[in-house]
Specification:
Shape: elongated
Strand order of the largest sheet: 3-2-1-4-5-6-7-8-11-9-10
Radius of gyration: 20 Å
Largest sheet: 11 strands, mixed
Number of helices: 5
Number of domains: 2
């Protein structure tokens, strides 16, 4: 998979290194010469250019990439890059970094954003996830379809404990995607029985989150 990352700061470089380790092709773009440090991510392609300019994105061959990540420290830049990637080049997946939570409402499909990642929100969500059992925690927002990645740790004594995944009448517009049990990451199977302490990750429509939480925390 070819991925273009706009913004070669610490965040952009970190994402690039992880994607390269997973076998993807990565191009980093930044207009600041001090951030174009090939030796820091030697396996990546580099482009010294302004990612907000069409000529730069033409040079980056955005039409050939499957994912664009707008990872700069400037929300305005990330929005412009997202919009151009989606509308001018038809990039299938656009991920944008939100630097200031007050701007999060802008990062939606109107600006070409498929997934908005707010570092402050993610940090607070991870804190909540670490201390909360039986509370639904929103980890990530998907702009398209008004859906979120949410997590809930199944409490002791919940009615669903011992129930097979395939027997649960999950709310509409929700999908159980992962069960984390201890150190194991499990792809849910219809025959898997839910256990207390399971961390359940769902993709769920926003308006179904309360119903999902009620189902998972209901007592016999």
């Amino acid at each position: 998979m070819r991925v273009v990352i706009a913004g070669a700061g610490a965040v952009g470089r970190s994402v690039a290194n992880e994607l390269l380790e997973n076998g993807h092709e990565v191009l980093l773009i930044d207009k600041d010469p001090t951030k174009v440090s090939v030796e820091r991510v030697p396996s990546a392609e580099w482009l010294l250019a302004d990612a907000c300019e069409i000529t730069s994105l033409d040079e980056a061959a955005l039409e050939r990439c499957q994912v664009v990540i707008a990872a700069s420290g400037d929300d305005k830049v990330n929005l412009v890059v997202s919009l151009l990637a989606k509308t001018e080049y038809g990039v299938p997946r656009v991920v944008a970094r939100v630097n200031h939570p007050a701007n999060e409402w802008l990062f939606n499909d109107s600006w070409g954003v498929d997934v908005a990642v707010s570092t402050p929100r993610l940090m607070s969500a991870l804190v909540e996830e670490a201390v909360s059992v039986g509370d639904l925690v929103r980890l990530l927002r998907f702009s398209q379809g008004d859906a979120n990645l949410v997590e809930l740790t199944l409490p002791e004594g919940a009615a669903l404990v011992g129930t097979r995944v395939g027997e649960v009448a999950w709310p509409q517009e929700t999908a159980l995607v992962t069960i984390i049990r201890g150190s194991r990451v499990m792809v849910p199977d219809p025959d898997d029985a839910l256990a207390p302490g399971d961390e359940l990750l769902f993709v769920a429509a926003t308006h179904q989150e309360e119903e999902l939480e009620r189902l998972l925390t209901a007592r016999p």
